Amino acid sequence: MGVDAETTVADVGEFGLIAEVVPAELSERVLIGPGDDSALVRVGDAPVLVATDVLVENRHFRRDWVEAYDVGRRAAAANLADIAAMGGTTTALTVGFAAPGDLPERWAVDLARGIADEAALVGAEVVGGDVTAAEQVVVSVTVVGTCERAVRRDGARPGEVVALRGRIGWAAAGLAVLGRGFRSPRVVVDAYRRPEPPYDAGPQAARAGATAMIDVSDGLLADLGHVAGASGVTIDLDSAAFEIADPLRDVAAATNTDPLQFVLAGGDDHPLAATFAADDVPDGWTVVGRVGERRSAETVSVTVDGAPWEGSGGHQHYR
Amino acid sequence: MGVDAETTVADVGEFGLIAEVVPAELSERVLIGPGDDSALVRVGDAPVLVATDVLVENRHFRRDWVEAYDVGRRAAAANLADIAAMGGTTTALTVGFAAPGDLPERWAVDLARGIADEAALVGAEVVGGDVTAAEQVVVSVTVVGTCERAVRRDGARPGEVVALRGRIGWAAAGLAVLGRGFRSPRVVVDAYRRPEPPYDAGPQAARAGATAMIDVSDGLLADLGHVAGASGVTIDLDSAAFEIADPLRDVAAATNTDPLQFVLAGGDDHPLAATFAADDVPDGWTVVGRVGERRSAETVSVTVDGAPWEGSGGHQHYR
């Protein structure tokens, strides 16, 4: 793709821009480059996982919807989940923090506490960062970690199963509630405010032989689309495999939404999705679909019960 | 310091806020925690340096003063210099990039090119990152690297000398020119737009036995103040040791400034300052001062020709 003088970043979108700036060639030291949940780089003699995730006020969170402490938990969770999705564990975090000068100090301190507490769940620590002034709160978290065996997005093979571990659809239901000016059911609002990624499930899946894995941050259809695209396969989900919990059903009914829409397209819960040989699925994971062959570039890569999903699917920044 | 409900981040300033959020205790794995140029963490079996620096539009750069490509060079340089200042070399970078949707794609692509080209100077690569929308351009770069021997800020001892390597005062002179609406002398404007940190000088100083080292990003007085504070010493600079180049003299005359003000308080050049035993100063370094004893907390930590510097000294974000 060429770069036109009048093209904006909104025109090309997040993924278009990333495609444009990713280097064509990387050295041998870069074992996994851009395009997966984390990069894997040989630093000195050690393979090190590294990932960065940016949260922007009024885009990823609203200060009136989410307390600073929970913004911190979410910012850390999004990053820790990226390391888990490689089969790894986070060791350390850095935080780039930009905020207006009139932000209460309390807010910044609570944010830092939230990041530290979430990191502590996996035994990781904040070891550095940078603080500066900006018009808007921006929290850029970087994580470094290790893994015994890195699980990429591109290893899914036809005949395997797709399995999921962790809550899904809950944050989307919470967001739907908050977006309508309500604060209950509390359980889904809390799920939006504080995701609970199954961090241990990443290394567990890697040990069990997962062939591909991803952190579901933008919605299951969108993120499995990345797995399908990278692996050159199709994925068919079985809608009956998803247990729809009562609070999701309640919010769906109250908002005139198909609860599956929350499950298939909702982001922010950070469950892990992985592909396994049918016999390898470890405890705690739920099989929700199957990997099939890709016939052509026009094939819809992720289907539900054999057909394209008619609802909206995930989201893109700038779009 | 307690956190008052009405205190803002501007009230406490960058360093006050950092002091408030830095964890009281870190694990043994964290060999060097927050408060140095980079952190040093044991990731798996390997000691890994990591640092993050955030550049914000209209604070660290203006799009009408600096081309996107040079913003990229500067953003990378600030981070690579943080690793060099530990005596280390950068292996990989991640970039958190937030920008308004109407930003030309060309700008973002040029920024990425600038980051990659600066990184290539030390053999490092961009391996990942995140792109999102925001009201203002924010570039958060994180670097990971290695070192044979980490040089901290806290090892300076009375009787040692302070030495400097790299350009100093040039970027401040360039900023003074740009701030008055001029574009020349070109050589100082270019120095502001594209710093040239002496990356190799970091490992060189470490091998030579440097006892403390810092990247001069906020101004020599301010940054040596960090070394003096961490080491519990005083530093006296010898103003005659600084060769004032003609372009600095010219800009100083034209703007009615003492050229030493650029040298002592100007930031953004990213030279390295280090302390050594007098016989250990390696090639290419200029001795500019001496380390003395600290008598009390009230002692001014960094003096010039034996007296406090009367001009302004460095800067603080939010202040």
TrEMBL record, chains A, B:
Q: What does the entry list as the binding residues for Mg(2+) 5?
A: D218
The keyword Nucleotidyltransferase is annotated on this UniProt entry: no
Positions of Mg(2+) 3 binding: D37, D82, D215
Amino-acid positions noted as binding Mg(2+) 1 in the UniProt annotation, renumbered to this chain? T52, D53, D130
UniProt-listed Enzyme Commission number(s): 2.7.4.16
Residue ranges constituting the PurM-like N-terminal domain according to the UniProt record? 35-146
The entry marks the following residues as binding Mg(2+) 4, namely: D37, D82
Q: Which reaction does it catalyse?
A: thiamine phosphate + ATP = thiamine diphosphate + ADP
Record domain PurM-like C-terminal: where:
157-296
Molecular function terms in GO for this entry? ATP binding; magnesium ion binding; thiamine-phosphate kinase activity
Residues annotated as binding ATP are G129, D130, R153, S217
InterPro entries the UniProt entry points to: PurM-like_C_dom, PurM-like_C_sf, PurM-like_N, PurM-like_N_sf, ThiL-like
Q: What class of enzyme is it?
A: transferase
Under the heading Gene3D superfamilies, the entry gives:
PurM-like C-terminal domain, PurM-like, N-terminal domain
Q: In which pathway does it act?
A: Cofactor biosynthesis; thiamine diphosphate biosynthesis; thiamine diphosphate from thiamine phosphate: step 1/1
- Which residues does Mg(2+) 2 bind? D53, D82
Q: Which UniProt keywords apply?
A: ATP-binding, Kinase, Magnesium, Metal-binding, Nucleotide-binding, Thiamine biosynthesis, Transferase
Question: Where along this sequence does the record place binding of substrate?
Answer: H60, D268
Q: What Pfam families does its record include? A: AIRS, AIRS_C
Q: Which HAMAP family match?
A: TMP_kinase (MF_02128)
Indicate the family of this protein: Belongs to the thiamine-monophosphate kinase family.
Other remarks on this protein: Reaction mechanism of ThiL seems to utilize a direct, inline transfer of the gamma-phosphate of ATP to TMP rather than a phosphorylated enzyme intermediate.
PANTHER family linked: THIAMINE-MONOPHOSPHATE KINASE
Q: What is its biological role?
A: Catalyzes the ATP-dependent phosphorylation of thiamine-monophosphate (TMP) to form thiamine-pyrophosphate (TPP), the active form of vitamin B1.
What is this protein called in UniProt? Answer: Thiamine-monophosphate kinase
Per the UniProt record, the lineage of the source organism begins with: Bacteria, Bacillati, Actinomycetota, Actinomycetes, Propionibacteriales
